[in-house]
């Protein structure tokens, strides 16, 4: 046999070995009791700039949680599919962003369930977390979330990106509210958030943060269905 044939065999053997090597396997789930974790969350999507955002997160090996509106999953299904495929967490942010404290329990259930259904149908993933629109919650919202088996996820700090729509202001605000075990609120429909994300992620990682999903962050915090986390001022779960 020719020397070229044996060279090809050697290349093939190395390729198979690398594919089966433990180093090539997916990394173990992050333990936030040991790591300095932070969760970046994006509401109201999938927004029209979600593709660029996903490119940035992939480039930096960072995970995020997307609290999706059902109406936009319906209109932009490819982004929702990609979010799930690339290991990001999909949460429920209602179907049409109605204030849950101003509608009936029945209407609230419909808003939540319609989003559960379309996210599951589109991506094969059923959201486990609920973020009430505007972060507005009350006892009725907690009861409905509890019935549906979903914790309510609020945030420890916001980017105020919807207000400033300015890259430098967004970066400054996010970094000012970043803290270990923090949950940061942003929006993937704000173009300036998406364009500033590479700098934000790099800075957080340089500060020692591991960017994780909300479920990873709260895994050992005893958050139950219906609970609001973190607690709004004056609340007691």
Automatic annotation (TrEMBL):
Signal peptide span: 1-25
Classification via PANTHER family: CHITIN DEACETYLASE 1-RELATED (PTHR10587:SF133), GLYCOSYL TRANSFERASE-RELATED (PTHR10587)
Limits of the NodB homology domain: 36-212
Name of the protein in its database record: NodB homology domain-containing protein
Keywords per UniProt: Hydrolase, Metal-binding, Signal
Natural source organism: Nonomuraea longicatena
Keyword Acetylation (UniProt): no
Domain of life the protein comes from: Bacteria
Family annotation (Pfam families): Polysacc_deac_1
